Amino acid sequence: MFRILIADDEGIMRESIKNTIEANFGSETEIVTVKTGREVVEQAESFRPDIAFVDIQMPGLSGIQAIKEIKKFNSSIVFVVITAYDNFSYAKESVNLGVMEYILKPVNKQKIIDVCIRAKKKTEELRQKRSDDLRIKEKLEIVIPMLETAFINNMLQESGGDRNRNYLNILDIDEENGYVIVFEYGDDFKDGNFTNAVGSNVKMNNYYKLFKETLAGFFQCVTGPVMGNRIIAYVPTAMEKVSYEARNEIISRGRSFVHKIEEELDMKFRAGIGGVKNIDMIYESYTDALKCLMESDKHIVHVMDMSASEDKSSSKKDLRDIESRYLAKAMKGDTDGALSVLNGMIDTFGKAGDISEIRIALLELMLSLERKAGDENLVTYDIKRHESYMKGAMKIGDIAELKMWAENITTNVCTEILLSRNTKVHGVVGKAVEYIKDHYADDLSLDDVARQVDISPYYFSKLFKQETGDNFIEFLTGVRIGKAKEYLSGDKYSIKEICSMCGYTDPNYFSRTFKKYEGVTPTEFREKG
Fold first, then answer.
1. Which of 306, 329, 355 is the last residue of a domain?
2. pTM of the entire structure?
């Protein structure tokens, strides 16, 4: 079907052209006729013709003026100008506007038929081109993010130089220099850590497209995938060194982006910005960015703003802080959290530090974890295993291999701690846990449960925390949210009913609590599937 607009102030001319087209092309066409230039513009917006026959001399806007207006919002219409005036300036202006044909009146029927055939062919070519362009765009929207992800992953390897250059060529990036920004996020930032990092990761996967599109408004960059509660971006630049003014401008843009995305997603963000490096050395910019996040508590920090006078005592303090965060995660059996802290430490200090210093720091960290877990009877304290750790560590001469060694130990010990915590819940705490699981829908308090197991609330609170790793409220909320997820996986109950079934009286409070733990609202969780 072809939509054809006929514009002429003479009624006889409009009907003549219309009848000729209908007689020869019939059901292939849908025709609208108008008699003024203003109507031509209006129909171009509402009727959206494929082909337009336009007279030059019409009341109000001339045909030429109408075509100029239409070209501002629709460049795909095939125009045919019809006029009784053999004026060179009209013809010249028509050519400049991309008019397909310039016809002088009177017009014979065969001329109209020939022009229609040519206009239809041109319209079909334009339609095919649009279809091809859309198909290519769809493919690129799939392929380019895959290439960008591969590039970011390769960039994180110290030996990725040549492959990094290949990715720049494929992604059509001309600049050989660039810098890395590492974004970190969570529900809130307290005591040097983001809260609900796992739930925020789930939420970010849902809103990654919004994050990427918003970031593109501030930095022309390659955005990596969601990695835990981090996203890494590479910003190409023609600069070889960053001036003071340029650094301030980068920080300002970063701060504006963080403020905007925090408002959009109702989350807290931080950003570490690495120095400008050649693509062969871009891994250094990545470690710079990580260092900014680990050694500062600011929202936005550039590596050039970090203290240049870092001494040994400062480094030791940093390592003590990392050890504290690592042990806090590991002692809960949080393997992912402990590995995140561990990898951040290795990435930050592994580049600048001597391998022997890194080896000793990691060995001390692994032994500290086992000692602490052993003191709480969560793992078996085995001196022979410690000796094997030391012998194994001393044989390793490569940071990547050392990293794998530490990850394996961390995973094994965290698994043992988690298993031990689960099996240690016995006696009065075991009874309390069973009671909570049976009565989670009731208006349950710590005093109620303590009364059921016949011990004082104060002692019960300490014992419960010691054996489960969670305080009473955290555990009860975890059980309730777990049951809510089960109910939400089906459509038998409304969200209001599920709220009540899980022990909540206020749907708004239930929704906020669910979002805090899962990173999405109950409605979003159900829609997701």
1. 306
2. 0.41
